[in-house]
Design brief:
It contains 14 helices and 17 strands.
């Protein structure tokens, strides 16, 4: 048992309760008490003093590309399509070593930014790469984060009118077989699952219509979720208009890609009617404000999506288009981007925390077990230290958390297990991970010539 006491507790429960100087008790993997300090406890209970700290649910990252952690800083001034065509030849050289190293770097960084659950969209599978999905799953187990990787795919190469080179695409049969194998091997349906799989063809401009239809059918047959990029840029709008005679969402609707088992990354270019259709079908959106700005795309209509009832979470996106990949920073940027588009009241700091926690849980189908601090929910928690000069004098702890500098993490727990303490990851040697990432970056660049 672990007792976190004397903290300012932001529950993000349905009533939006905030409890000054409160306690939260963890027993095993679950939260068993919230509020007043419990009575008699075993002598061996671990006590954590949260004085001067704010306790939130763990942050939930709904979109990422972990393999990109070893290719950061490249194509820094390119458009989305230019950026992709520049980096695909480098990504064609990834293998198990590169992916595990990248995932360790990305997951360690996520843990230090308050993330306790993350997805990953891995869609680059070179023929000689090895077990790439297994490599990142091993990395997530090592760091200790709850993991929702997706078995991504591409079957439309340059020679067929797509963007990726021939060396990183697969046939539909290869993809469907590998997707079914991934679900059989790793997908865990239990309420406290640390690992769940989704299927994720990459994007309208890198997969065929047949792959989208077949993947949707397979995902629903197997009972897993579906994910892809959509409505990210004006270039994508032009591509879909020229190739399919419709908008990106209309195209996805035509192949069965809407529903409460689907979430799209980005969702910038939806019009009013399309937002209504997303809401009516409970199709989710992973809002990635930092990456959107890094690539010079337009600003997501976050406020309109929320008001319509669309499930919305936050995502850091790939490390090659968001070199920091810090989850709490996405909450900060979500506020700024929404206000840049819709004015000073477009998104509150508390709504930003909701998007980063229970919003992400809803997008991933985990709302019953994660995303808020409530009795019976999984013990995925972050204790933020607001005692430094960076936050002193900010009376509202939520404003301090969202609008101020990213504070040190006094402690974080995933499934009741400590992952961060004293702003240090407990499960890996961060300095060793950093050195391995730098070496792997140099190896990949040299390999690509």
């Amino acid at each position: 048992m672990t007792l976190i006491e004397n903290a300012y507790v932001v529950t993000v429960d349905p009533e939006g309760r905030e409890l000054p100087t409160a306690s939260v008790l963890i027993d095993g993997t679950r939260i068993v008490a919230v509020g007043d300090p419990p009575g008699a406890l075993p002598a061996d209970v671990t006590r954590i003093d949260g004085t001067g700290c704010v306790l939130t649910p763990g942050l939930i990252n709904t979109h990422h590309h972990l393999y990109q952690w070893v290719t950061r800083g490249l194509a820094a001034d390119h458009t989305l399509f230019q950026w992709l065509t520049t980096l695909y030849p480098i990504w064609a050289g990834i293998d198990e070593t590169a992916v595990r190293t990248a995932a360790l770097g990305g997951l360690t960084s996520l843990a230090l930014s308050g993330c306790t659950t993350t997805t990953d969209h891995h869609y680059v599978f070179p023929a000689e790469g090895g077990d790439l999905l297994g490599a990142e799953i091993d990395a997530a187990a090592t760091v200790g984060l709850r993991f929702h990787p997706t078995r991504g795919s591409m079957d439309l190469s340059e020679k067929d009118g797509g963007l990726p080179p021939d060396s990183v695409v697969q046939s539909i049969d290869e993809i469907l077989t590998a997707s079914a194998d991934a679900v059989a091997r790793w997908h865990d349906t239990s309420p406290d699952a640390m690992l769940r799989i989704a299927l994720a063809p990459c994007s309208p401009f890198s997969v065929t219509t047949d792959l989208l239809r077949e993947s949707a059918g397979l995902a629903r047959e197997l009972g897993v979720r579906m994910h892809t990029h959509l409505a990210e840029s004006l270039d994508e709008n032009t591509y879909c208009d020229e190739h399919f005679g419709c908008t990106p969402l209309q195209y996805m609707e035509s192949v069965g890609w809407v529903g409460d088992d689907v979430w799209f990354a980005h969702g910038i270019e939806f019009d009013d009617d399309e937002i209504g259709r997303l809401a009516a079908t409970s199709t989710g959106v992973a809002h990635c404000p930092t990456s959107n700005a890094r690539l010079g795309n337009r600003i997501c209509r976050t406020r309109d999506l929320i008001d319509a009832g669309v499930p919305v979470g936050l995502g850091v996106d790939g490390a090659a288009s968001n070199e920091s990949c810090r989850m709490l920073e996405e909450a900060h940027q979500a506020v700024l981007m929404a206000r840049a588009r819709g004015g000073p009241t477009a998104l509150t700091t508390r709504t930003a925390i909701e998007l980063a926690t229970v919003g992400g849980a809803r997008v991933l189908g985990r709302e019953a077990d994660t995303g808020s601090i409530e009795v019976g929910k999984l013990a995925d928690l972050v204790l933020w230290d607001l005692t430094s000069v960076a936050h002193s004098g900010i009376e509202d702890p939520v404003a301090a958390l969202v609008l101020g500098a990213i504070p040190p993490i006094a402690g974080s727990w995933v499934n009741g297990r400590p992952v961060v303490a004293g702003n240090q990851v407990l499960t890996v040697d961060a300095d060793e991970v950093a050195a391995d990432v730098a070496a792997e970056h140099r190896r990949l660049i040299a390999k690509a010539g």
